[in-house]
Design goal:
A hairpin with a 2-residue loop joins strand 1 (about 5-15) and strand 2. The chain is about 5% helix and about 50% strand. It is elongated. It contains one helix and ten strands. It is an all-beta fold.
């Protein structure tokens, strides 16, 4: 069963993990580190919620407890190098970057970016925004804030 992609029902969530029903009486769990490459405060911050159906990959299986550790982010492509300059994309703003006045931005579970704000316009954590691509390279996506969604 390991490395198999399965359909899952999101039963419950805690701050750092989702608990899933993957069928046949088997429960699974996705830890926040397997959910996305961004550092987030709560698993609900990326838009998955209880009672949703998602796809996930089986990482490991405990046959005694019928419990499965699941992965999620690797099911998505890192698209950081696939945009053109001036493309507009919708992202979620997260924590500030300590070395600049920018923010970490969530593009998809396997793609993060740095979002530069307009001067004197704070972007609250978890806010959906439209951003303009300033530069795009593998693992290096730089965005500029355009507007709130």
């Amino acid at each position: 069963m390991e490395n198999q992609i399965v359909d899952c029902y999101v039963k419950t969530c805690q701050k750092t993990m989702f608990f899933l029903d993957i069928g046949h009486g088997i429960s699974g769990m996705i830890h926040v580190g397997e959910l996305c490459t961004s550092r987030i405060d709560h698993v609900l911050d990326i838009g998955i919620k209880e009672k949703d159906y998602i796809k996930a990959i089986i990482k490991s299986f405990d046959s005694e407890k019928f419990h499965v550790n699941m992965g999620y982010k690797e099911l998505f492509e890192d698209v950081s190098g696939k945009f053109n300059r001036d493309d507009l994309i919708e992202v979620i703003s997260f924590h500030t970057v300590q070395t600049s006045n920018g923010y970490f931005a969530y593009v998809n579970p396997n793609t993060t970016a740095i979002l530069d704000p307009l001067s004197d316009v704070p972007i609250p954590y978890g806010t959906r925004v439209v951003a303009r691509v300033k530069s795009s390279a593998p693992n290096k996506l730089k965005l500029g804030f355009m507007t709130f969604v």
